Inverse folding.
């Protein structure tokens, strides 16, 4: 996926989870943050961030904060922190045959049970029909070249895994895909230190036949693309 009009800025402050104050060319702009997560290790005063300029004159904020250069000992790491981007990236990847086939139907935001999964898909091959669900999780937390999810407790994430297990038991194929919004990661790990219940649910889901996949992305200030599969350590 590619953004449109991109420009750099310097992060100043985040008064609440929805907005940030960013220095853009010497003036302070109030920007919409496209990620309601904590992101405390990313949004540090003085770091370089990347903004997308909105073409909608009716908006309260002119810019969206979409990426940040994380400061770390080995040099800065560009991280896309747009929470809407992972679904778009997965949709493009799956539609192009990333799953090993091109789905005959790929429908976003589909309700099953008590959850709304990110994608429902169908595919027919040699008279055999297949169908299933995918839930997509964006990953922005990095520690020593390991990507971890979640960065904060997520009861919703546990619920999604429980529903994926129920769908699998009902005869659907089911999977969870971690979209890693940065480059150079060795693997993805559940963040058991922050939310052990999610890690436990992920391991139970894998044993129940839910596919667990991680896709590392190529990250540029102006775009994000699924690049390669990396291991998920459970």
């Amino acid at each position: 996926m590619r953004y449109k009009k991109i420009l750099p800025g310097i992060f100043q402050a985040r008064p609440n989870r929805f907005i940030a104050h960013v220095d853009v060319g010497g003036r302070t702009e109030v920007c919409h943050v496209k990620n309601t997560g904590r992101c405390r290790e990313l949004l540090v005063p003085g770091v370089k961030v990347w903004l997308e300029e909105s073409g909608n004159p009716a908006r309260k904020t002119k810019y969206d904060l979409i990426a940040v250069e994380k400061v770390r000992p080995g040099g800065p790491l560009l991280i896309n922190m747009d929470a809407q981007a992972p679904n778009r990236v997965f949709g493009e990847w799956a539609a192009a045959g990333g799953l090993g086939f091109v789905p005959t139907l790929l429908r976003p935001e589909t309700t099953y049970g008590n959850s709304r999964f990110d994608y429902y898909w169908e595919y027919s091959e040699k008279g055999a029909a297949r169908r299933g669900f995918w839930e997509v999780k964006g990953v922005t937390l990095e520690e020593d070249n390991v990507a971890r999810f979640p960065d904060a407790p997520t009861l919703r994430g546990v619920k999604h895994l429980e529903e994926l297990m129920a769908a699998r038991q009902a005869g659907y194929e089911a999977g969870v895909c971690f979209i890693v919004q940065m480059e150079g990661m060795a693997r993805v790990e559940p963040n058991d230190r922050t939310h052990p219940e999610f890690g436990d649910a992920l391991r139970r889901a894998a044993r129940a036949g839910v596919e667990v996949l991680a896709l590392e992305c190529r990250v540029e200030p102006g775009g994000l693309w699924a690049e390669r599969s990396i291991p998920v350590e459970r």
